[in-house]
Amino acid sequence: xxxxxxxxxAGLAAAKSAASKxxxxxxxxxxxxxxxxxxxxxxxxxxYKSNRSAAYLKELQQNKLxxxxxxxxxxxxxxxxxxxxxNYLQAGVEKKISAQKIILTTGAYDRTLPFPxxxxxxxxxxxxxxxxxxxxxxxxxxAIVVSGTGPFLLPVATALAKSGAYVEIIEAQSPLRWALxxxxxxxxxxxxxxLMHYASAIVRLxxxxxxxxxxxxxxxxxxQVSKVRSxxxxxxxxxxxxxxxxxxxxxxxxPDVTLGGIxxxxxxxxxHETVVFxxxxxxxxxxxxxxxxGEATGIGGADLALAEGxxxxxxxxxxxxxxxxxxxxxxxxxxxxxxxxSYPVGGGWQEWLRDETVICRCEEVSxxxxxxxxxxxxxxDARTSKLFTRAGMGLCQGRVCSRNVSDVVSGxxxxxxxxxxxxxxxxxxxxxxxxLGVLGDGIAG
Length: 445
Ligand SMILES: Cc1cc2nc3c(=O)[nH]c(=O)nc-3n(C[C@H](O)[C@H](O)[C@H](O)COP(=O)(O)OP(=O)(O)OC[C@H]3O[C@@H](n4cnc5c(N)ncnc54)[C@H](O)[C@@H]3O)c2cc1C
Known about the structure:
Layout: E1 2-5, H1 9-20, E2 25-28, H2 36-39, H3 53-62, E3 66-69, E4 72-80, E5 83-90, E6 93-99, E7 101-104, E8 108-110, E9 123-124, H4 126-136, E10 143-149, H5 153-162, E11 166-171, H6 182-186, H7 191-204, E12 208-210, E13 213-219, E14 222-228, E15 234-243, E16 246-251, E17 253-255, H8 258-262, E18 267-269, E19 275-277, E20 290-292, H9 302-316, H10 323-342, E21 358-360, E22 365-366, H11 367-375, H12 382-389, H13 402-413, H14 419-426, H15 436-441
Parallel strand pairs: 1-2, 1-7, 2-3, 7-20, 9-16, 10-11, 10-16, 11-12
Antiparallel strand pairs: 4-5, 5-6, 8-17, 13-14, 14-15, 18-19, 21-22
Bound molecules: flavin-adenine dinucleotide.
Flavin-adenine dinucleotide binds next to helix 1, helix 2, strand 4, strand 8 and helix 4.
């Protein structure tokens, strides 16, 4: 039996290809429905080509070789003989499952950057706004600014506008950056119809788009927009104010590397110093009998996740990987690299901050407190700053802020963030909070 953690595109493709070779597969996911971040919402709004999901979800439900455990949050994992045991929480009860082989497809989550007002009501991530809409049919606001960087702003903005909101897109980077990646564009012709789909929707829905700009402050229903350089430093402050009851702001995604990290799978940094897993040509991780696929190995979109998942599933069953599948992964990886080149997230955002701007939301630690931990208490890295300020010690265990805390400390010491600090900041000993009561007797108190 193979366990697949994550029922997103990568996990679904892995399960499908492993089952096609006659192998029993158990897919486990914290969500009540399969599909992952992109495909799990069956209601209301459909995105471009999201109908691709139907065949995979049907396989998940109907293939007798595939068992789907839903609403199950894997909170820890351990080596057991020559296999692995995963410990998960389901409806408040702690359970265990083990197998000789596991495929991790744990995906990614929204990356946020702080700015004055980002903790006030009305500010959320584009993923949050999309989830409200697709999952519950709720339009987050009447006038919505969708800001940040990356192609993900497009499905979110068009879906919100289609549902009746007045929407503006504030994209930090210039579309001309795509000229840096001609080969990736040539090898991925399928992306042109997708671009045309969103371009025509933007025109039809009268969505105003600004490039080279960012929301650098939000207060009392007013988003202040500044012109920014490609490293996000301010070129011209507060050029324009937009009345908006919601600002949905996101800066791409961060891979969720927690579970593989607990199991000791080797990680590395991509060109933007984001922590990703190292895998071989067949998606094998450094730890024995573990395969990793999808966004956890680097952000690249659903098509890349599908190709990597299919390869991982075949490899885990000892099957041959067809050349066509390897070629598909190669072209999608080239596109993923082009995405990184086109939508970089530089450190210039620190210019947007005020002393009182909160950096760590869980522990309410301000920019000033982190600066003081360096200048007055002598912290030289984020770990020491964390000990002085508690930044990153709250419920999310630094998932949201740890990268930003490292960057603020480095911006103050003028020393680059070390590779080991980046890796340490993305890893934590448990994958999800669990109470001592549940740990003690396995049942929620
Ligand atoms: C919020 C958000 C919205 C997105 N919307 C779009 C969109 O509209 N259009 C688009 O093209 N792309 C979108 N993307 C990108 C798209 O989701 C990815 O390209 C694609 O889904 C990656 O597939 P994946 O299988 O690697 O990961 P995911 O789809 O992220 O799936 C990972 C799954 O693993 C599960 N998981 C993780 N850790 C655990 C654990 N410890 N225990 C149990 N389960 C766990 C998660 O619940 C999740 O279901 C979105 C991404 C995010 C983060």
